[in-house]
Amino acid sequence: MLQGTYSSRHGFAFFKNLRLCRLFMGSRIIIHCDLDAFFAAVETLHHNLDPEIPLILGSDPKNGKGRGIVSTCNYAARKYGIRSAMPIGEAWRRCPGPPLGPGHYLKSTRGLYSRASRKVMAILSESADRFEQASIDEAYLDVTDFCDGDWDRALALTRNLQMEIMNELGLSTSFGIGPTRILAKMGSEENKPAGIHRTLPDEIISFFDGRSVREVPGIGPKTATRLAEWGISTVSEAAEHGEIALSRFTSERFASWIMRVIDGESSDDVSPLRSRKSVGKEYTFEIDQIDCESVLSQLSLLVKKVMSRAKDMGVAGRLGEVKIRYQGFETHTHGRSIPVAMDDESVFMRIAHGLFAENVDLDRPIRLVGFRLGNLEMPSSRQSTLDFEE
Ligand SMILES: [Mg+2]
After folding, report:
1. Which residue, 367, 369, 370, is CA-closest to 287?
2. What is the tally of structural domains in the chain?
3. Which of 48, 172, 303, 343 is most enclosed, with most CB atoms within 10 A?
4. Is residue 273 part of a domain?
5. Does residue 145 share a domain with residue 9?
6. 65 vs 355: CA distance, rounded Å
7. Which of 239, 158, 255, 228 is nearest to 206 (CA)?
8. Contact criterion met (CB below 8 Å) for 51 and 28
């Protein structure tokens, strides 16, 4: 069925044998690749800057008097507490530019990022049975057959990919290798930047041991707070309670999900196919907006509405998408997908703010802004009664 998306170097019979083999071996090998401070890294190369100097991309700070937002920043600027979507004035207070401080403020160079991203994705997709781009700077690779189920080969492959992307494009990447998307994603966060972390199937328990539940993608701040009320702050504590007790504090769905995560079973397939089902909302401004702070607050309202609608419908999504239409009707859509479906408002709020801040063209008046929750998952019994927006 998915034959077309498998690497052509393997015949079907070979794949079938491996598949049988894998039934015995039991697990897939998933790689997650995340570019390190991608936008800032591309600008650093483009302008030949010193990566040790705090670089802040976004609106003109006008010596602290400017309005507007931070698009994104490099690791040196993050040390000052500067974050994507922060008001540019606050960034300036934390790390002013010359002569008051070391901050280097720049406006993003449009077009540079998608070009660099395409090159990275081309390198990555060549080495996978199945490949899924999760956003402009993130991708999942299923390499189970590509590496013949061999975890050492997967590690060697990852090292080569990391080197190739650095040598050919000058960009730093972090990789996670694991039996599920969640473990791969958590792995790439583990030694950032320029890190590689591999979690073998028999290392899952020790990987989760003592780890805060907040680090698990799929556990949003709300669920974490509810668990904390019951004295559960680590993954191991959750596991000790067991599914039945957990379903009493949270929900049956969550309890069975977290137990599967801990067992290394919970994982969505790496797939280039996306579910078309989505729920979204848009807002058209009466007057085209040049103030991106006010567009951002309108976007926040849309995210709230969409997430409460999703909750009412009993659905969760794996993809957040922000739509921006400029004066003259040019429309851009920017998306980011997460390893598991969620219905947590704060998670998608952060994704929406990040996508907006990183991608908005600060020079152009905005006519419309929209948010869409995509790749929906829902209880199958309710599927037929739901209606979805385009
Ligand atoms: Mg990244």
Report:
1. 367
2. 4
3. 303
4. no
5. yes
6. 24
7. 239
8. no
What is the 9 CA–ligand 1 centroid distance (Å)? 31
pLDDT digits (tens, 9 = 90+) for 185-206: 999 999 999 999 999 998 998 9
pTM of the shown model: 0.85
278, two tokens: 């989505």
Distance from Cα 135 to the centre of ligand 1, integer Å: 9
The angle at the Cα of 25, spanning 23 to 27, to the nearest 5 degrees, equals 80
CA of 174 to the centre of ligand 1 (A): 8
69 and 213 together in one domain: no
CB atoms within 10 A of CB 304: 15
pLDDT digits (tens, 9 = 90+) for 324-338: 999 999 999 999 999
Q: Is 168 a catalytic residue?
A: no
Stretch 223-252: mean pLDDT: 89
What CATH number should be reported for the domain holding residue 135? 3.30.70.270
Handedness of CA 219, 222, 223, 226 (dihedral sign): positive
The parent domain of residue 97 ranges over 54-102
Among 35-39, 249-253, 274-278, 293-297, name the one with the lowest average pLDDT.
Answer: 274-278
Selected catalytic residue, list 43, 132, 138, 358: 138
Total count of residues recorded for the chain: 390
Between 213 and 340, where is the model more confident?
A: 213
In the predicted structure, residue 8 carries a pLDDT above the cut 60: no
Whether residues 15 and 116 share a domain: the answer is: yes
User: Do 214 and 195 belong to one domain?
Assistant: no
What CATH number does residue 79 fall under?
3.40.1170.60
Least confident of 90-99, 239-248, 346-355: 239-248
Query: Taking a C-beta distance cutoff of 8 angstroms, is the pair 370, 322 a contact?
Result: yes
Same domain (yes/no): 257, 164:
no
pLDDT digits (tens, 9 = 90+) for 45-67: 999 999 999 999 999 999 999 98
On whether both 119 and 230 belong to a single domain, the answer is no
Distance between Cα 177 and ligand 1 center (Å) = 16
- Is the distance from CB of 180 to CB of 186 less than 8 angstroms? no
Shared domain check, 147 and 77: no
CA of 295 relative to ligand 1 center, distance in Å: 24
User: Which residues have beta carbons under 5 A from ligand 1 (an ion)?
Assistant: 34-35, 137
Cα 336 to Cα 221, 286, 339, distances in angstroms:
19, 28, 10
Please give the structure tokens belonging to residue 61.
């700070």
If you measure from the C-alpha of residue 288 to the centroid of ligand 1, how many angstroms do you get, rounded to a whole number? Answer: 31
- Distance between Cα 35 and ligand 1 center (Å): 4
